[in-house]
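Holo prediction. Input below; ligand is iron/sulfur cluster.
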Amino acid sequence: METIDLTALRAYSRETGQPTHPEMLDTRPIEHVNKIEIDEEHITITFDQKTTRYYNANEILQREWIYKYNDDPEFVRAVARVIDIARKHLKDLPATISCPPGCAECCSGYEPFVSRADLQRIADHLGMSTADVMREYVVERPSADGFHLGWLRKVTDDVADQCVFLKGSRSGRYYCGIYPARPGDCRDFTPIGCEDVDDELPHDAHFKLGAAFSPKRRNGSRTRR
Ligand code: SF4
Ligand code: SF4
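Structure of the complex:
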């Protein structure tokens, strides 16, 4: 895991546009960086946000540092590096906050939306036509912008039931039956803030997956394009 030492940012204590008289500079170090935002011209860092609680009032201290690009190349490079690393590792999750293998609570109760690209990927994966995948596995409900076509069906009409592609019911060790082709919604799902996690399942366990999902045969043959 790559890391960057944010304490290096503490060295910077000059605010763009501030007069350069030392007595007028804000020389307090950055203790906590709360947010970094970039737009076409500026890098804005919100830092040292803290709430001091008094008997009858709260004081919220929040400072913002706005830098123009190229205003301080060394600083901009440091921030760019932080952003690069953050983007690169955006989806890394420590083991303690990844889903324990076998948990699939969220494959019940949630209805992953299906985009046109999802539909095509699932159809290719199953060797079916997109029309057949729509009919068999998608509840049609196009979004207003036309991006989503509907959501994945459940095994029954009960929306709290399992996703039609969920496997492992017999062993209780669940897995996605179309994992390489699952919709974007399922790919983007993280267990951060998840309250449904099956705590009985250990994080370090591995189990052998069973067969992948296979479409029902119709008239003795698989539906093909
Ligand atoms: S497609 Fe796979 S990951 Fe997504 S809800 Fe269904 S079983 Fe779960
Ligand atoms: S831990 Fe949470 S997000 Fe992960 S599979 Fe279980 S219910 Fe879903």
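The beta strands are 33-38, 42-53, 58-68, 113-115, 138-140, 148-152, 166-167, 175-176. That is the main takeaway for now.
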